[in-house]
Design goal:
Layout lengths: L11 E2 L6 E5 L17 H6 L5 E6 L2 E6 L6 E4 L4 E7 L3 H6 L1 H7 L6 E5 L3 E5 L12 E4 L4 E13 L2 E10 L2
Length: about 170
């Protein structure tokens, strides 16, 4: 069983109110965020995603939108997992419930996406070329095809979280 006794060692990204977005680093500068002269912004397209995840075109690639709630999100790279905090007494309890949540998750249908390499998790309102050091997380992914699946799980009466897992396909 994986234990996360030191939640401070697990980094997280906060949202300013909109969805968090996972954009391939190779096309990060193409993400315009909320402030541009176009009638439809990248942030607006991300806000239009229904459900726990959605895909939004960005150049020749796709951004993964972590929809539903603008919740604090941590990355557990050893599990290829984004953990989104909905309710918990503490960060330690939330992260400590991951094993039980994975065991009881009722996953939504998978989506598939091609990933050209590392990705960046950040608030969709930010332009990709203006991210500040503490406003995003870089996630090391090898290039390839990935399945994306999501679930909302309540492993105990006080804990509620969204899980988004990226699994590399053969």
């Amino acid at each position: 069983m994986t234990r996360y006794a030191d939640p401070g060692a697990v980094e997280e990204v906060e949202s300013g109110g909109g969805p968090l977005t996972v954009v391939p680093e190779a096309v990060l500068s193409s993400w315009s965020g909320a402030d541009n002269d176009e009638s439809e912004t990248d942030d607006g397209r991300a806000c239009g995603v229904d459900g726990y995840t959605g895909l939004v075109a960005i150049g020749q690639s796709q951004a993964l939108v972590l929809g539903d709630d603008p919740t604090s999100t941590s990355v557990l790279p050893e599990r290829d997992l984004f953990v989104r905090w909905c309710a918990a007494e503490s960060e330690e309890e939330l992260l400590g419930s991951v094993d039980a949540a994975l065991a009881h998750a009722a996953w939504e249908p998978e989506r598939h996406r091609d990933v050209p390499g590392p990705v960046v998790l950040f608030d969709s309102a930010w332009p990709g070329d203006e991210l500040e050091p503490d406003s995003h997380l870089r996630v090391e992914l090898g290039p390839g095809r990935y399945s994306v699946r999501a679930a909302h799980v309540e492993p105990d009466p006080e804990t509620s979280l969204h899980l988004v897992q990226l699994r590399r396909l053969p």
